[in-house]
Amino acid sequence: MEPDHQQLVQLLPLMPLLAELGRTEHMTETAEVLGVPQSTVSRAVSRASAIIGMDLLVRDGRGIRLTPAAKTLLPYIEAALEDFQAGLDRVRQESEVVRGRIGVSFQHTFGEATLPLLISAYRSDHPQTLFELRQGPRDDCLRELAAGETDFALTAPLAPEGKGIRSLPLYREPLRVVLHYRHPLAERSSIHLSELRHEPYVTLPVGVGLRSLGEALLREAGFRPRIAFEVQESTSARGLVSAGLGFSILPPAGPGYGTGQFLPKAELGLVEVAIESDMAFRQIGIAWRERSFEPEAVRLFRQLVATRGEALLSELVRARSGTH
């Protein structure tokens, strides 16, 4: 080992003590701040002086005084310690992101593609971040967010702001009336819902966003539906419609989710038809809580959604809305 490097290695453990002594210029106060005996401070200064080859302190009456050599050296010691502390802070911050934990509540339909696309984009930069996912009705998602059980809620309609809740719209998609493929109105390009006044209705549970949106559209059409089935999620609703057991109001399924796939021998199949109403859409958005301290992983995910969410979801939006 080179002599200069060996000297540096010997001095490194003493640098915090020398920096504090330079600040206080008092042996007893330095010992108290560092929580060590005064004799430890004294021996450390003597050892540092011996390693450097010149005195760092001189007696000044009943106290001590820094030598010119110490005054020259101290700014470099302080700068080195500050740089090292900055490095430690950076490492800890990056480590927190790597080991971060993000909780998301989401409605069932957003587990098919919307949320996976956002998580995939985030984890391409932070692959070890853990996501805790809770799936449920819109009301449950918002309750979990407000109670601090999750960091985000992905819902439709968009969560209203207020009481410490902030929200961001991501995209909107049309709502369609879903019919059995042999229904008399199945080949129409659009339907006014009043034409289905006497048809059995397949709906979702109370508290689910699609339930309230569908009911609002039917009220606008001037009637209350005859509910034939209440199911937990949209896949089951599509299955019942496909079997000819009623109609439903749902967002577009998108490619690969059953629309246009018929089994004539089994009389199974469904179609989606546009609804003649300016209200026939749902706004998808993400909500989060305002808080004094936001974990780094949560902040980074929120920023990704805010800055890149629209682009990340653009192909999905086109596929589900039938646009190009």
How far apart are the first and last residues' alpha carbons, in Å? 68 Å
Characterize the biggest β-sheet. Answer: 5 strands, mixed
- The overall average pLDDT, rounded, is 87
Tally the beta strands: 13
What order do the helices and strands follow? HHHHEEHEHEHEEEEEHEHEEEH
Q: Can you tell me the overall shape?
A: rod-shaped
Q: Give the proportion of residues in helices.
A: 40-55%
Number of helical runs?
A: 10
Structure description:
The protein is α/β, with parallel strands linked by helices and 324 residues long. It has helices at 3-11, 15-24, 27-34, 38-52, 68-98, 114-123, 138-146, 209-220, 234-242, 296-321, and strands at 57-60, 63-66, 101-106, 130-135, 152-155, 165-174, 176-180, 190-191, 200-203, 226-230, 248-250, 270-275, 281-289. The strands form four sheets. It has a five-stranded mixed sheet, with helices on both faces. A four-stranded mixed sheet has the order 8-12-7-11, covered by helices on one side. α8 (209-220) links the parallel β9 (200-203) and β10 (226-230). α2 (15-24) packs across α3 and α6 crosses α10. The chain starts with a helix and ends with a helix.
Secondary-structure blueprint:
Blueprint: H1 3-11, H2 15-24, H3 27-34, H4 38-52, E1 57-60, E2 63-66, H5 68-98, E3 101-106, H6 114-123, E4 130-135, H7 138-146, E5 152-155, E6 165-174, E7 176-180, E8 190-191, E9 200-203, H8 209-220, E10 226-230, H9 234-242, E11 248-250, E12 270-275, E13 281-289, H10 296-321
Parallel strand pairs: 3-4, 3-5, 8-12, 9-10
Antiparallel strand pairs: 1-2, 5-13, 6-13, 7-11, 7-12
Helix pairs in contact: 2-3, 2-5, 3-4, 6-10
